[in-house]
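Researcher: Quick one. two chains, 883 residues in total.
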Amino acid sequence: MKNLVIRICGTAGEGVISSGDIFALAVARSEYYVTTFRSFPSEIRGHGQCSFQLRMSEEKAYTTGLMTDVLIGLNEEAILSNIKLLGSGGILILDSDEVKNKFEEFSGIIKYRIPITTIATEKASIRAKNMVAIGIMAGLVPQLELKEQLKKDIKKRYAKKSQEIIDSNIKAFEEGYKYATENLKREDNLASMTMEKSGPKLIMSGNEAIALAAIVAGCRFYAGYPITPATEIMEWLALEMPKVNGTMLQCEDEIAAVTAAIGASYGGVKSMTATSGPGFSLMSEALGLASMAEIPLVVVDVQRGGPSTGLPTKTEQSDLNMAVYGTHGEAPKIVIAPMNVEDCFYQTINAFNFAEKYQLPVILLSDAAIGQRKECVDKIDLSKIKIENRLKHTRETDTGLYVRYKNTLNGISPISNPGDKGGAYTATGLEHTEICQPCSTPEVHKMMTEKRFKKLETATQDFIPAKTYGPDDAKIGIITWGGTTGAVLEAVDMAREQGYKIQALYPRTIYPVPNQWLNSFVEGKEMILVAEANYTAQLLHNLVYRLNKINKDIKLFEVLKYNGEPFSAREVFDKVDKVIRQQMLKYTTFELEKDESYKF
Amino acid sequence: MEYTLKDYKSSTKPSWCPGCGDFAVLAALLTTMTDLQLDPDDTAIVSGIGCSSRFPFFTSTYGFHSIHGRALPVAIGLSAARPDINVITLGGDGDGFSIGGNHFIHASRKNPDITYIVMDNEIYALTKGQNSPTSHDNVITKVNPYQAVEERVNPIMMALSFETSFVARGFSGDIAQLKSIIRQAMDHKGFSFVHVLSPCVQYNDKITFDSIKEHIKPIADDHDVTDRMAGMKLVFEPGYYYTGVIYKQERPTLQEKLDEVQSKAHPGHPEGQQVEELIQQFM
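Model:
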């Protein structure tokens, strides 16, 4: 697959992220596939380093790539922390006004020293260095015809600013482009690279995909509280929800947000809230209410790093345990984890469909990396999207009564909404009888617990089966979820090139995981690795008992990363490679991997 | 068809202790609903947790007995999503002023068209008698066996300072006045707060029907309900509980503001936009 990986880095406030965003949009609108990754500190300006990586390609790519082809650095510190990502023959573009270091110890790369600051200051403005940078980038590959689209996207980005600022940015961009095409003595051969266009497509971030899908699924009420890195969902819905006559309500805290969503859903309107770890912790009690009172609800957790305030702008997959177990008592719910931006869209539709059909909370576990990055999504065909609605309330044929929590064969009971004639009932978080009377007798609690869990069993028949990737006869399996999936799938390809036969299993519904998915995957496997971005191997520990029950001899290994950055395919592969080599050495005695050095 | 009182009563017998002040509130509310001829199927009563929060089970309307302290946000969500439904919220002093205190501030800011009735017995009664945020310092319970260490909150003062758009106080010992207050609260367009002194006969012997009666004073007819400072003066007068409507302000409700947001979002298209149009921005 033909592809080009570009990374821009600099100090927070230098416009690295916005220039990367603009470049990615222009690439997508020029009909190439693009996927991105951004890394920035939680402070707004002047501290710490930012970087933005994008990969443009002929076909859809799972990750932003292994190595960088072009690195654009606006200062020395930023270059030093990113230069190791340049592959052999890679291009380093640096601002010669700011960076005096010649990086002579780094050989095998092409270095272009360009006076970016001078160009920006003399031709436009000191604040337009980032525009010069993307001008240079576009000028390195004029044959890919990005220039005109980039100019359109720069204008669009700054549409709300003064004409002066727009003109200055365009000028800076054009000067950068001119420098690269006219003044630069080229030592590379990027200018002869070709790339096929793949037709019109959409580009959006994971957070935008979730917000858009919510509206497509019929959500017309959103309540939220601002929190990084989930706020864009709320901001997008604040703008768009009223356009479809829906409501976005800002609340005083996450408890109010989730309970307002529950209140609205009790009212018959599909409802959602979105948050990140700290807010999700606050919502725990209310999730139990939605489960107990059987109110459909979608809660999005865009996971960030660490416990407590942790790392607000970094990514991790460390809320799985909380999503699955994080409310008191036994409260059935469904947990879904999208694997990339496009998946955010379709899994959000699923989340609403499950919530409505099974009258329970559905948790969508996204993460900071997916939520914040922009990526291509194939055109959406609304006519192919199936939307489920809750079962309307009915009366018993014999008694004429409405039994709100009727213990049916599949566990799903009819549900009325305020305003429905003859449907009045009192929803409660207390244990209750089928006709909603508070009741704590042993018989009723046993029956109603079973009834609520029966819905989960029924729901598993609706789940899209977990997909596999790689040969069926592989003896080595790797299970992964959510944001780590892309890296794992690319690592499977790398492993094949190295002569390893590995098969990956990547469920999107990660709780409950139906037995049949595990049974057919474990069959024929000798060892299974579970890859996820957390310290305590949360998915592995969720599954270990069941995997051992299917095959007591199966060897299980953790593949973990927990430094706040997402897995790259290289990191997954190196870890897998190491486990396999060790395993072959100590084949007869090997037990669950405990070696700290194996963790990234 | 005309609704009568029995159309609002459920078959469930109230679980309150005989003599509980909350019976009076139930009677006053159901009578007011009968007077207003509210359709029980278009009405929802939302509560939190506590003795008084059992209320929805005793009525035949839609009801939501939610979680401790969260009745207001549940009700606001319901009301914002379903403006066609009459939403009434109620609960106790612990539910409303302690665990749920924060929501009272923000409900007042939002001004949803909801009536919020708090039955204040100055005690946690469902958990069998612990100090509450409104308990007087002579209330000695198992959690403050030596003495109270906190000051009381003043719910009316809270409401006035949050600029709740309707503030009133009633007493379970005076059903006629309570009915009149609840009626005015329900007629009010916006967030109406009714503080009801509603004694607990089981766990708080310091606040009884008789002790309250000694301190009750109906608000004089010439009180200007639009004067917030005048309301505050009533609250500050030592030794008395003034009952009646203390403050009233007409201002846009949450729903009116949300309607405005919608018309600004799609000017000239009252039916709203198509979902397809929203996708265009990602092209």
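The first strand of chain A starts at residue 3 and ends at 11.
Researcher: Thanks, that's what I needed.
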